[in-house]
Design a protein that fits this description.
Elements lengths: L1 H28 L4 H7 L2 E5 L2 E2 L3 E3 L6 E2 L1 H14 L5 E5 L5 H6 L5 E2 L7 H4 L2 E3 L4 E10 L14 E5 L4 H12 L4 E5 L2 H9 L5 E5 H7 L4 E3 L4 E6 L2 E3 L3 H16 L2 H8 L5
Parallel strand pairs: 1-5, 1-6, 9-10, 9-11
Antiparallel strand pairs: 2-3, 3-4, 7-14, 8-11, 8-12, 8-13
């Protein structure tokens, strides 16, 4: 009886230790690290493909081009020794979070603004680009600034911080605004062109890419918009590695040169 009981306890201990060991291994295997990227042989990056000068699909070559694309390629070169060992996944403001959470991309380099609230959910590198929210309007509206836009409808991107920043400024002028959300920037520009919205608001550098002879960017600036590369919250080793890369490229002027090359120095 005692022998059977002892054997049962030993068996239970073995199963328990094996389960714990399995859980530990699974937890480690779920981590994306520099080594797992090297093993895969490809860096998976979520990028924008509708933002001129940051990430925009070239209709002639079908390739995505821009400052953030070049930045992503530099990361791939550092990790894998090949800037083309990379897989780009186009993202929107609404889809990019779930894609990194689900592990479908290793990193997001996608005009992702750093906020304290977002830091609770994601790892951000130090900022590689700084901007401010602006407003693009049609010239024939006659707007000179936000103060003239009481009752206007502003087109913004889904899941963005834009409307909150504008409302803070609007309170100072005692005006009320309405917002219409869109999935992509081209959709907002189309709505502006067809007068379905009175303005298009996002970061000023992005608006520059959508400005034309019929529009003007108002002088108003709302808040600081810092862009950082984003990783899943649990992927701390990869986050630290990327942050070191960004800091090094900021220090040696690499990022500034790329910003200038793409005409993003406001």
């Amino acid at each position: 009886m005692k022998k059977h009981l002892l054997k049962g306890l030993l068996l239970l201990a073995t199963v328990t230790l094996g389960a714990c060991s399995g859980e530990s291994t699974a937890g480690t295997s779920n981590q994306t690290t520099v080594d797992t990227i090297k093993e895969a042989g490809v860096l998976r990056v979520g990028v924008k493909d509708d933002v001129p000068n940051f990430g925009l699909r070239n209709t002639g070559t079908n390739e995505i081009e821009g400052f953030e694309i070049d930045l992503a390629k530099k990361v791939a070169e550092e990790i894998l020794g090949d800037p083309d060992a990379i897989e780009f996944t186009p993202v929107t403001a609404k889809t990019r979070g779930p894609l990194v959470d689900n592990g479908e991309v290793d990193v997001l380099i996608s005009t992702f603004t750093i906020t304290d609230e977002r830091k609770e959910t994601y790892n951000f590198t130090n900022p590689y680009y700084q901007d401010a929210v602006g407003i693009l309007v049609k010239k024939d509206k006659g707007y000179e600034g936000l103060k003239d836009m009481d009752g206007a409808t502003i087109g913004v991107s889904q899941s963005s911080t834009t409307s909150g920043l504008i409302d803070e400024e609007a309170e100072q002028y005692g005006i009320t605004l309405k917002y219409s959300e869109f999935a992509t920037y081209p959709e907002i520009k189309a709505a502006l062109d067809s007068n379905r919205v009175d303005a298009f608001s996002v970061d000023r550098s992005i608006l520059n890419g959508y400005s034309d002879d019929s529009t003007v960017i108002l002088p108003d600036r709302f808040g600081t918009q810092d862009y950082g590369a984003v990783t899943k919250k649990t992927n701390t080793e990869l986050a630290e590695y990327l942050n070191d890369l960004v800091n090094g490229w900021l220090d040696d002027g690499t990022i500034d040169a790329m910003i200038t090359e793409w005409g993003l120095s406001e």
